[in-house]
Amino acid sequence: MPANSWPENHSYRSFPPLRAILYNLSDSEEASIDPAIAYSYSGYEGRRAKAAILLIVAWTGTIALHLVSWGFWLVVGFTGLLCFQALRILLARPHATPEPLAEADRSQWPSVSLLVAAKNEEAVIARLVKMLCHQDYPPEKYEVWVIDDCSSDRTPEILQALTQEYPNLKVLRRPANAKGGKSGALNEALLKTQGDFLGVFDADAQVSPDMLRRLLPMFNETRVGAVQMQKVIANAPLNFWTRGQEAEMALDLYFQQQRVAVKGIGELRGNGQFVRRSALDSCGGWNELTITDDLDLTMRLHLDGWDIEVITFPAVSEEGVTSLKALWHQRNRWGEGGYQRYLDYWRLIFTNRIDLLKTWDMFGFWIMQYFLPNAAVPDLLMAIYLKHLPVMSPLTTLAIALSFVGMFAGLRRVNPQSKLTVSNFFSILVKTIRGTLYMLHWFVIIASVGIRISVRPKQLKWVKTVHQGTGELPL
Question: Where are the domains of the chain?
Fold first, then answer.
């Protein structure tokens, strides 16, 4: 396929576009749609009841396994099945990164819109805008949009000054009563953008000047609807929590690329995500009824028949949260958003809109990431009461082992220039051990999320992380 053909054909899809279901559209109505209009899809209703049912099933099922003699061996057998999938993932060869856009084909390069949703970001917004406006890319072929969501600090004044300096910078200011959170801000800007591809960044992002030239060839394949950049923690050396996030991002990158290599699920991570406009339109834009727009869009794209690729370089850097309290609040939102998408779209998942390999991959990681932490509480209580091993210990062992191996391999992958000497090996090993201990917080987060959303409804609002402008990274 020619490097700059930028195909839009999606003829292999044998079902109607997802937005036809979300908005209950007829064929004649599919041509144009405002993503901010109300959804008719009933899957967004009854989240608390669905979460409660799932929690009851997890708890009662776990207790029942303790009460039958063959319960432990049933879990062993199921863990064995997951081990085969784990081996497929670990032994896979990740997709190669295509060559950057050729200078000779400059006139054929696609148009791009870069979006930044910002609220009270005076410490970091100027740095990001300058990086985005200094891309090694024809100025007439890309635009930068900053959506100021009614900031109360100096963000509006800073953006006003920057518009005088950069002609391709456009600022959209939302009123105080604007709804939809970050998704609403992105949808509002979407209607005004011109790009064939859209990139989304958090205000604390840092990117390299060759980002667009290196990333856009990832869309050469017809089925690729989105691409996620590697995320790097800019202030990683600061303390235990930021070092843990550095290892966590390496782990995430590794498993994402390995899963994609076996035709599994690739996921978006918000900061540094690029989406094909036709794919975004086909799946109905950003969901304004979710607290994690990136994870929800991930599910929508796969349900609509698109693939998501993950690229190691170029990377996007961001500030890691620096305290346990900030980590708790941020990860609770991530955990709830990740859990919520399964509650919202389970009916569509079971209608075979996602192929078998992706569905099996999704199921395996749902077991590890969401079911296992929720089952941990009754499992531990029953193990203490009956004085024997937790029945889920085989699954827990597999999850921790996969995390350890994936983290070591991921830390190695993000630093390919360094040779694996003895000292370097032990340095990565120490980071992996520390990162594995850090990752145990996810068991507590997901277990608490599962209980909380079963009894208390979530108020949808923009929950932002405070950015200080620390951690300059040479990219």
Answer: 48-100+111-475
CA distance 206 to 318: 7
CA pair distance 191, 33, nearest whole angstrom: 10
Identify the CATH homologous superfamily for domain 48-100+111-475. Answer: Spore Coat Polysaccharide Biosynthesis Protein SpsA; Chain A (3.90.550.10)
Nearest to 304 by CA among 326, 324, 330, 275: 275
Which of 385, 449, 459 minimizes the C-alpha distance to 54?
A: 449
CA distances from 421 to 12, 412, 428, 446 (A): 47, 12, 10, 37
What residue type is assigned to position 426 of the chain?
F
Q: Select from 67, 63, 76, 81 the least CA-distant residue to 395.
A: 76
Q: Are 226 and 308 in contact (CB under 8 A)?
A: yes
> Residue 303: which H helix or E strand, with range?
helix 293-303
Q: Is 467 exposed, middle or buried (0-12, 13-18, 19+ CB in 10 A)?
A: buried
Structure confidence by residue, pLDDT tens digits, 30-66: 545 555 455 678 888 899 999 999 999 999 999 999 9
Cα 256 to Cα 3, 281, 297, 336, 445, distances in angstroms? 24, 24, 16, 20, 21
Which residue ranges of the chain lie beneath pLDDT 70? 1-14, 24-39, 457-464, 470-475
- Judged by phi (left if over 0) then psi (alpha if -120 to 50, else beta), residue 49 lies in alpha
pLDDT, one tens digit per residue, over 195-246 is: 999 999 999 999 999 999 999 999 999 999 999 999 999 999 999 999 999 9
Largest interatomic CA distance in the chain: 74
- Non-local CB neighbours of 323 within 8 Å, separated by 6+ positions: 241
Provide the whole-model pTM: 0.91
| Count of alpha carbons within 13 angstroms of residue 221, beta-carbon side | 15
**How far is it, in rounded angstroms, from Cα 416 to Cα 38?**
47
Distance CA 287, CA 22 (A): 10
Contacting residues for 117 by C-beta, under 8 A, at least 6 apart: 147, 149, 182, 185, 186, 200, 202, 203
- How far, in Å, CA of 402 to CA of 79, rounded? 12
Query: Quick check: 306 and 336 in contact, CB under 8 A?
Result: no
Query: Closest Cα partner for 245 from 318, 311, 309?
Result: 318
